[in-house]
Amino acid sequence: MEHATDPIKTVMAELHARDAADREKDTPQAARLRAIAPEVGQLLLTLAIATRATTIVEVGTSSGYSTLWLATAARQTGGRVTTFEVDPSKLSLARGTFATARVEDVVELREGDGGEGLTHFVGRADLVFIDSEKDDYLRLLHLAVAALRPGGLLVADNLTSHADALVEFRAQALAHPLLSGLVIPVGGGEFLAVRL
Ligand SMILES: C[S@@+](CC[C@H](N)C(=O)[O-])C[C@H]1O[C@@H](n2cnc3c(N)ncnc32)[C@H](O)[C@@H]1O
User: Fold this and answer.
1) Residues 29, 134: contact at Cβ < 8 Å?
2) Phi/psi of residue 52, each to 5°?
3) How far apart are CA 21 and CA 28, in angstroms?
4) Residue 15: strand, helix, or coil
5) How far does the centroid of ligand 1 lie from the alpha carbon of residue 26, in Å?
């Protein structure tokens, strides 16, 4: 029996291939998708389903690759992903991604600063994923902690791949009195913590 192809998986594979090719060619950062590694997507999916996360917030959409993993989880949990992006070219790319993958029912793409966006979720986000500019992570750390409900999860990408830029974030995140977490060797190195 033939199975219909899942549009999410098809779009994910295309974006992953494009990102990998751009990295190979050394395409300038601004033109790249800068997507998470697939195993980070699998981690996000697993965490979101295991914790029945319904209010999911992402800072840094780019092409929407990581959002598709979160959207897959949201489909399972009956939840919704709100994702923030500042770059107009990435916003238009992400709009195309979400339309082609047919996830517009579970994804809300918002134009603007994710830090400001987080202030609209105070105390009620189940999962926050930070994947924007590394020099902005410290500001986002405090806004994300405020957005999370107790028991909610914070995940931040690139702790190992961008270790130098994230020294202060790592120190403050690991010592944060309202978080209990660690850095795990998945993809670019993920900070994973629960809001106490
Ligand atoms: C590493 S890429 C995100 C990749 C994406 N999470 C994925 O895995 O497919 C970082 C993105 O964050 C966006 N960005 C930078 N600062 C931001 C901010 N303050 N709020 C929202 N997005 C931001 C950038 O324009 C860029 O597209």
Assistant:
1) no
2) 50, 45
3) 12
4) helix
5) 19
Instruction: Compute the distance from residue 59 Cα to the ligand 1 centre, in Å.
Output: 6
Per-residue pLDDT of 11-53, as tens digits, reads 999 999 999 999 899 998 888 999 999 999 999 999 999 999 9
CATH of region 7-195: 3.40.50.150
89 exposure class (CB count in 10 Å sphere: 0-12, 13-18, 19+) = exposed
Expressed in angstroms and rounded, the spacing between residue 163 Cα and the centre of ligand 1 is 18
Q: Is 90 in the pocket of ligand 1 (CB under 6 A)?
A: yes
Where do we find the tokens 């994923």? 129
Domain regions of the chain by residue span: 7-195
**Is the overall model pTM greater than 0.85, yes or no?**
yes
Instruction: Check pocket membership of 37 for ligand 1, CB cut-off 6 A.
Output: no
